Amino acid sequence: MEEWKEYRLGDVISIAGGFAYKGNLIGEGDNFLLSMGCVSFSENFLDKGARQYAGECPERFYAFPGDIVLATRQQSDNLPILGMPAIIPTKYEGHKMIVGANLYRVDIKDKSFSNRYLYWLLKTPSYVNHIRSCQSGTTVRMITKSNIEDYIFYAPDKATRDKISDFIWALDDKIELNRKINANLEAQAQALFKSWFVDFEPFKDQPFVESELGMIPEGWKVGTLDEIGEIVGGSTPSKAKPEYYTEHGIAWLTPKDLSVSNNKFTARGEIDITQEGYDSCSTKLMPHGSVLFSSRAPIGYISIAKNDICTNQGFKSVIPKLAGTAFIYHFLKTSTKEIENRATGSTFKEASGALMKSIQLIIAPKIVLDNFEQVMKPILREQEILEDENSRLAALRDALLPRLMSGELKVNEIVL
Question: Are residues 32 and 49 in contact, defined by beta-carbon separation less than 8 angstroms?
Answer without folding.
Answer: no
